[in-house]
Amino acid sequence: MWINQDAWFSLGHFDAGRRERDRLHSGGNEVDVFVIEGEAGVAGERLRRRDGLDITEAGEIELATPADCLLIAIEVPLQTRRRLPSGCVELEIAERKPGLLS
Question: What is the chain written as a DSSP string?
Answer without folding.
Answer: ---SS--EEEEEEE-TTEEEEEE-SSTTEEEEEEEEEEEEEETTEEEETT-EEEE-S-SEEEEEESS-EEEEEEEEEGGGTS-PPTT------SS----TT-
